[in-house]
Design brief:
heterodimer, A: mainly beta, 6-stranded mixed sheet, 5-stranded antiparallel sheet, B: mainly beta, 4-stranded antiparallel sheet, globular
């Protein structure tokens, strides 16, 4: 099935650094979502975006719904150890279409 | 329970055998989804149930895959004559209703390994 292009595939950062990841699609979506998945768990919703151009924050997380409705980015500021995991974008029309994921690792 | 539960958490089977994976959604959630997550990949939609409507089976990869939802609650995903490429984590999610404003809550998944 279709998957969205998500980059980077993996990131290795030091604690306290900012993180940025993005997602692009050839199709328009009405909603963009960002999820985090910890090992052995299902994804958990972090942020939902419902309008083109919308910029939404949730604590240290900020996400934007691209104006073309074909892309979105997620920023994490001042990373902490519990930010480690895999981040997925998802675009939604009727069903969810997921990105390929960004694996975030914090180097001690 | 408070969240979506799935069983078993791990399943190892031999090629050619049938397997059944179970999902218990959050009580009161009318929508239920099955996804497949292959190693290092995102989630791939398989099938969607909403209330008493006919399920959306558009993501099922072959006729070896089927799913039921009995009584509008528990769902079972069945894979017949399993193949090695069926090895993946199978995730179930439920939501209060259909539509973009209803958050999907995911279970922990069943990791299927076909030898």
């Amino acid at each position: 099935g279709q998957q969205l292009n998500q980059s980077p595939q993996s990131m290795f950062i030091q604690e306290g650094e900012d993180v940025s990841m993005n997602c692009t699609s050839s199709s328009i979506f009405n909603t963009w979502l960002w999820y985090k998945q910890d090992p052995g768990e299902g994804p958990v919703l972090l942020i939902a975006l419902y309008k083109a151009g919308e910029l939404t924050s949730n604590g240290r997380l900020t996400a934007q719904f691209g104006i073309t409705r074909k892309d979105s980015f997620l920023n994490i500021s001042a990373s902490i150890p519990s930010d480690v995991g895999i981040y997925f974008c998802a675009g939604q029309r009727e069903k969810l279409t997921f990105g390929t994921g960004t694996r975030l690792t914090i180097i001690p | 329970g408070a969240g979506v539960s799935q069983s078993p958490s791990n399943k190892v089977t031999e090629k050619g055998k049938d397997v059944e994976l179970r999902c218990d959604p959050i009580s009161g959630h009318t929508a239920l989804y099955w996804y497949r997550q292959s190693l290092g990949q995102g989630l791939e939609f398989l099938i969607y149930f909403q209330g008493n409507s006919a399920p959306d089976k558009s993501g099922l990869p072959s006729d070896r895959f089927s799913a039921e939802r009995t009584g509008g609650s528990v769902s079972t995903l069945t894979i017949q004559r399993t193949q090695q490429e069926d090895s993946a984590v199978y995730l179930c999610a439920s939501s209060l209703g259909a539509g973009v404003s209803n958050e999907q809550f995911f279970g922990p998944g069943t990791r299927l390994t076909v030898l």
